[in-house]
Design goal:
Helix 1 runs antiparallel to helix 4 and helix 8 runs antiparallel to helix 9. It is built from 10 helices and no strands. The radius of gyration is 17 Å and the shape is globular. It is mainly α and 220 residues long. It has one domain.
Length: 220
């Protein structure tokens, strides 16, 4: 487990780690891959989100997989690179990557919902918990076909298991914050789940020139 953060020293390193993580996290892979794949602006498809689930609505599983990998790895890379300067900088870079994905400056702070990046950060910081969270997501998705429900379940379980099973107190605290942010980004999905109106995984949407339709699944 990383040592407690010592705020009284190495401020330049902490700020650099935060900025580095944010810049990596703010790379909009879904937007980039959708345009390269000839699908135009992903923000005009389905929910208008730049995450994996909305990219899947283009009908291209390859582009969705590439988006998932890119969004996850930017969190992992941020953590692993920053870890070369200490465990504290790894945590800060991971947090920065998550903020970058949710609030990218290039897209007027309107980014994804953080699921893939959450898992990527978890992979870099504590891989056993990553396996549990990933399997939880896959299991829930297989059973219920709701991306948002899968994400909400896996992320809610993460800080609880980190704290009570692995005794990773500092990581549990950090991922509790990430989970709260992720749930806040999914507030519309939560409302639709409660009403039974949430779209299921694999629903394809067409490009549109008008504003995006009502947001659906937990686009990460």
């Amino acid at each position: 487990m990383p040592d407690p953060i010592s705020w009284e020293f190495a401020w330049p390193y902490y700020l650099a780690a935060l900025a580095f993580g944010y810049l990596l996290g703010s790379i909009p892979f879904g937007l980039i891959f959708a345009k390269l794949g000839g699908h135009g602006d992903i923000r005009k498809i389905g929910s208008g989100n730049i995450g994996t689930t909305n990219v899947l609505r283009t009908g291209s599983k390859k582009l969705a997989a590439a988006t998932l990998l890119g969004d996850a790895l930017k969190g992992t890379v941020a953590v692993l690179v920053a870890a070369q300067f200490g465990p504290d900088t790894a945590l800060i870079a991971g947090f920065g990557a998550f903020l970058g994905h949710l609030f990218p400056v290039w897209l007027k702070f309107k980014g994804g919902k953080g699921v893939a990046t959450f898992l990527g950060i978890l992979l870099g910081l504590y891989w056993p918990m990553f396996l549990i969270a990933a399997l939880t997501w896959v299991g829930m998705a297989f059973l219920f076909r709701y991306s948002s429900l899968s994400a909400l379940t896996a992320t809610a379980a993460t800080p609880v298991i980190l704290y009570f099973v692995f005794n990773q107190v500092q990581l549990a605290e950090m991922f509790l914050v990430l989970t709260l942010l992720l749930w806040a980004k999914h507030h519309e999905n939560i409302g639709r789940l409660l009403k039974g109106q949430e779209s299921k995984i694999g629903k394809k949407s067409k490009l549109a020139t008008e504003p995006p339709s009502e947001p659906a699944p937990g686009d990460g």
